[in-house]
Amino acid sequence: MLTQQQIVRYRRDGYLILSGFLSHAIVEELRAEVARLTSGAARLRESDGVLDLEPSHRPEAPRVRRIFRPHTVSPAVDGLIRRPDILAVLTALLGPAVRLHNSKINMKSGGGGSAVEWHQDWAYYPHTNDDLLALGLLLDDMTPDNGPLLMLGGSHLGPLYDHHHEGYFRGGIDVERAGIDAARAVPVHAPAGSLTVHHVRLVHGSDINRSGADRRFLLYELAAADAWPLQGTYTQFTDLAEFDSGLVVGAPTLAPRLAPVPAIIPQPRLPGALYQVQEGLRKRAFGTA
Ligand SMILES: O=C(O)CCC(=O)C(=O)O
Is 194 in contact with 138 (CB distance < 8 Å)? Predict the structure, then answer.
């Protein structure tokens, strides 16, 4: 359960860090799932529907950048988001009905695993209201040198920044041009098993992994059930049954709640998900491997 103080802090800062929320046994179970899901990487020459590979990947030296939608291929990942203690966090922040629309595991391998350039998730998937958040589970400690998540407190209450460059949606913010003081971002330094929560409009990013060990981070993207995705964004579904099957708590609705929120259309877009889209950014805030 979240305290009233934590809820107030989330509304003010746009993020929470819940240190040591889950046990070591659960972290171990999920690490075993990561090992299972990535075990075929050595057979891949290029990314497929489940594994996104680092540019430096070679079949003889496999390097996975991201596991796409692990909740669809791992009962353990799907089950975790439905735990009563996690649902209590979600309903405290999003209301009584919550839908899971995506999940991912960012692998950030030791020795240069990819950075995530500054961005707002909202730029990728605007909805009719902004009661959306990402809930993250640290599968490894986040430390100063392994590319910890960086959160720019309060930025969820500010503007939606430009994520286009040279006529294409590139999914990243030029913080200098936007006048953002990125130096005041708070790094998540917390042990494996900790949870992070960040608001969909919060500016965040993370550097490459400069340590020798992996920094694996499981993220779930969640929405209030009455937030309806705008057409042509990164939230995709085939039909209403599939859309509603994402509900992790509460009842579905056919009545979207319309709020006066800013939006940009993440088009024209290039193929691929975040890392690939951001590769097109000419100016990068973080390093490349
Ligand atoms: O893995 C990270 O450090 C950042 C994750 C993130 O912002 C994303 O995948 O959208």
Answer: yes
User: 111: which 2 tokens?
Assistant: 């020795």
| pTM listed for this prediction | 0.97
Q: Which atom of ligand 1 is nearest to the CA of 121?
A: 10
CATH number at 4-278: 2.60.120.620
Query: Does the beta carbon of 37 sit less than 6 angstroms from any atom of ligand 1?
Result: no
**pLDDT tens digit sequence for 169-199:** 999 999 999 999 999 999 999 999 999 999 9
Position 289 scores a pLDDT of 73
Residue 263: how many other CB atoms lie within 10 Å: 15
| Cβ atoms of 269 and 123 closer than 8 Å | no
State the closest ligand 1 atom to the C-alpha of 106, by its place in the atom list counted from 1: 1
Cross-sheet strand order for the sheet of 116-119? 116-119, 204-206, 150-151, 186-187
For ligand 1, atom 1, the nearest C-alpha belongs to: 106
Q: Could you tell me which of 89, 50, 47 has the C-alpha nearest to residue 67?
A: 50
- Please report, for the chain, the start and end positions of each structural domain, with discontinuous segments joined by +: 4-278
* Atom number in ligand 1 closest to CA 147: 3
Distance CA 79, CA 223 (A): 17
What value does the mean pLDDT of the chain take? Answer: 96
Tokens 């990947």, residue? 57
